[in-house]
Amino acid sequence: MAESTGFETELARARALLDAEDLTAVHVGVIHDDQTVDTVASRRTDTDTEEELQALSLLATHIRAVAAEAGVDYDTVAADAAAVAAQLEELPVTAPDDDESVDSESDT
């Protein structure tokens, strides 16, 4: 069996995380060979947790991860991300409707 690369290891870890039964929110982003970026963001609407806090926690975690990988402080990454976000023509992610069932999303 060939030795796994870091990318393959992290991809397997991401798949395992997505299979967890206790998920309440998720944000996944991928970049394809042609540099196309696809993202998915969703949260359960049937939980008692604050939905806005979940989204902010996911964003903060991503900022920390990028900052650690780049060896820069969080403020720099956040400022750069805000600048890039302002340049996007349209946001590729839509939030689920509050009355939308999570089960109906997973059936597609």
From TrEMBL:
Q: Which residues form the DUF8113 domain?
A: 1-90
- Region Disordered: which residues? 89-108
Q: Where is the composition biased (Acidic residues)?
A: 96-108
- Its protein name is DUF8113 domain-containing protein
